[in-house]
Design goal:
eight-stranded antiparallel beta sheet, Thiol Ester Dehydrase, Chain A, 10 strands, 38% strand, globular
């Protein structure tokens, strides 16, 4: 349910600590993660392999803000393996930085694939990293392609309707 509207789109009040936005044609959700010591390398940078984990946290929280979870999809016999992952490192994140993970769906999936765009920002608002993760919908038993689950389509469709 929208709680306010502005130049950037409508803000939806969802679970505590997360935000989702309706713009003309996209779904955007943000969550925050603090870089833990064990996630850094010898230079004190967030280890490059951990960015994929941060993308996953963003995706899981984005789905949760829509009102369901990966676990619920799996109970329905639908799995979502990663088919492709691209990442571009712009600036390092450091131990104890509070990172904002912005997860964006720029298009409503029309087939068996869904593309999550990720942007990671530090507390200064500097863009640190961008990534795109493509997942596919599969039947858990047969591993055959499956279209976007109807519950997911119902939840996402309002974010892609043209603004009035």
């Amino acid at each position: 349910m929208p709680v306010n509207a502005g130049k950037r789109g409508m803000h939806f009040a969802l679970n505590a600590g997360t935000r989702a936005y309706k713009t003309d044609i996209m779904f955007t959700q943000t969550t925050q993660i603090r870089v833990r010591y064990g996630e850094t390398d010898q230079m004190g940078y967030l280890y490059y392999g951990n960015y994929a984990l941060y993308y996953e946290v963003g995706r899981a929280e984005a789905i949760r803000t829509l009102g369901f979870t990966y676990a619920e999809l799996e109970k329905q016999g639908i799995i979502m393996p990663v088919a492709e992952l691209n990442s571009k490192y712009l600036r390092p994140a450091y131990y104890d930085d509070l990172i904002t993970v912005k997860t964006i769906l720029k298009e409503l999936p029309v087939d068996h694939k869904i593309r999550f765009h990720s942007e990671l920002y530090n507390e200064k608002g500097e863009l640190l990293n961008v990534g795109v993760t493509t997942l596919v919908f599969l039947h858990a038993d047969t591993k055959q392609r499956y279209g976007m689950p109807p519950i997911m389509m119902e939840c996402l469709a309002p974010f892609f309707e043209k603004s009035l």
